[in-house]
Amino acid sequence: MQRSILRLFVLIALLFSGCSSEKNTFLNRQFHNTTSRYNALFYAQNNLLELEKAIEKSHQEDYSQVLPIFFPIDSAIIDQNEELLTGIREFSSKAIEWHKISKWVDDSFFLLGMADYYDARFDDASNTFRYLNVNSKKKRIRHRSLIQLMRQFTDQKNFDDAAYVIDYLSKESGINKDNRFILYKNLAYYYDKRGEVNGKIGALDRALGLTKDKKEKSRINFILAQLYQREGLDALAYSYYQEALKGNPPYERSFFAQLFAQQVAELNKSKDVRKVRGYYDDLYKDSKNLDLRDVILYEKAIFELKQDNIEEAEDLLIKAAKEDGKNPVQKGYIYRKLAEISYDIKKDFRSTKFYLDSALTHIKQSDLIYNELTEQKGIFDNYVRQFDVISKNDSLISLSQLSPEEQELVAERFIKQEEERLIREAEENAKPKSTGIFENLLAFGGRGSGESFYFDNSVAMQQGSIDFYRIWGNRTLEDNWRRNVQGFQTTDRSGNQTSNEVRADENGDSSEEENPILAQIPDKESLLAQIPKTPAAINALKEELEIAYFEMGKLLFFDFKEPKMSIEYLEGLITSYPNSNKKAEAYYILFLANQESGGNEKLYAERLNREFPESPFTFSVNNPDGIKGNQAFLESSKLYKDAYDLYYQREYVGARSVIRNTLENFPLTKNTEKLLLLDIMISGKIDDKERYKGRLENYIQVTENQDLVKMARNMLLALTGDDVKEEQKTDQLIAKDEDTEETPVLGEIEEEDEEDSPYRENPNQTHIFVIALEPEKAKDAKNLLADLEAFHMQNFASARLRTGNMNLSREEAIFIVSPFSNAEKALDYRNKFMNSFNSASIEDSDKENCFLISIENFQELNRRKNLNEYRQFYNKVYK
């Protein structure tokens, strides 16, 4: 017994002697390894897991969009869990400081880096991961640090550095299974951020085979199913949706997996419409789907749209908007679809605007469709603004032409219509909204929706309020109304007190409480006050109306692509306001709109030539095939300099000849307004003063460049004698270019243009191959996509190339082949295409016009819509 006790004391003594964090002995290492792992490191890891669970729990999945690879990090959630981050840092620091010789020091450093990453201290996190990559002796930690560094680069869209890490890891050996799984997830995330669907699918496929976590597998399978469904590969999508149902996923994901699987397998192909409708109705009735009824109605509405049942689809969407859904963003999709129906089918642009307003109230700035809807809303806001001005001002001007008695009758009729509307709304709101057993029992007891008691009957209350208002006006509500003695007070029809004694509450505010029902009924006096009474007020309304007619016509043609509706408003402008300073531009838009809709465009070309022979719009109409884009700007800049040199040498006739020829050959460039002003300056030298003055006044009215307008005003002041020195100043100013201090010579312009090119050379970026055709030719090229697919199967079977087509502008349609990982591979494809591709849909000249473009430059081209401009860059860089 004594020997056992002695041994125990010796063992304890040895343990205490081995607790030093510096002494590197076997016993000491074992002690620090065990203590570090199961104390400080254990708690730090648990805090990190708890933080990641909080991020996951706070995320609301949006199944209408492809699910994100990683759950988005919400800064608000990070702030709420600051204690967890503090715990990670404290425990990791203790594991490092107290157990310096343990084998878990590098793991602790990694946890510190993760804490900095989640706290958005990206520089500190990056330094930690880089340090571990260089100094850690553990492959596991080095690889994990590089993978996390890759994710951080992807978050920040630093794709070049992310690609460098990917390339480095691809050459590394000994990456363990857990790290390979995380690597492929991050690779999918990288491709997702770059918009490369094929790469994303491939990476997720690889990740799927590297995890045994059933929940993780279910979510990845669901994402893959969504991607395949969007690529039109329904069979693959169905298979992956079925796989997503395994692993006991959350009910919501299970619901969407079943719903979307039915869509790709049966609903889209079924000819039994009643069966499909019954399927949606059964889902709606299922009590487990109570929080998903808005989704079910939305999907059923999409199905009805495919059957061209527009009214039924619209009714279903309105019903869906009233359901209490689980995901707020779903309401945004519902209202967006209603907006699409109003815009694309009904051409009701006013309703479209209000549906977009409703959609944006349910969509956050971080949601994918926010920017798209905001941009659309701006256009429709402008439409409604112009529409309201036209409606209101037209009505007020018409009313101003009536006699006072007729105006009163119109006002009274309007008030009566408003009263009837309010009663109709009350009747609608009073309709029973439930036929449940409790509602029915209450009805039998006299407490149902069909009330006879006055204060429970909303229709009677509404009618009573309106009748009281009609007879007595908006009287003040008062306590102790039976008292005999009251201060002398009267209330007029509009509810204004006229007594010398106005009651107030303790805070000094009026005790009057406005009835919300009566607030909706305008009084006759306020209606009549809006009608203009003086010529000045009527003219102000007409000026607003003139601008609104022009803006509406312009908006309908350029933004809504509705030439016929545009013609209606612009012709109304010209008829009602024949002296409008927007007339030349209105003629030009009418020319384009008639040209597009098959109307009489020659009529407006003739009017432009007759009424505005020197307008840039006239030059454009007379020279439709002139050189466009940068080339036109370069040539016109050179000729502008030549004209100015001639003007400065007092060779006015020669200068005018150069200007007129330039405007004929290069209409509507950046130099057009400068050329016109220089031509007016020549007019001041060789024409009579009245013509010179008239041209200056017209130029000031129609020119948008404010610097040039200021110059023209100076010239007008000099002409009228107010400042005789201004013309000399203007002569000096007009020689200056808009973008540079002085008008450059051609060589300088070309160099400057090259520097300012919107396109950038990037041979390592993903590229696209583009076939550009005229719209009419594109319509006839029905078999082109099929021919391309056959060409790819024969020559690029393993490349997973995709094809598609779109309208770049009204003048060009493009067919796209993608993706190519870099310019070299795209060039190889082009060479093979030029030598081996044959199709009856395109000619050799069309093949010659094909080109390559990087993803970044394609986005710029899609924004600028100028193929000629890009071709100049392409010919220089790729040829």
From TrEMBL:
Region (Disordered): 488-514, 737-762
Biased composition (Acidic residues): 738-756
PROSITE patterns hit by this protein: PROKAR_LIPOPROTEIN
InterPro entries recorded: TPR-like_helical_dom_sf
Polar residues biased stretches: 488-501
Protein's name in the database: Gliding motility protein
Species of the source: Fontibacter flavus
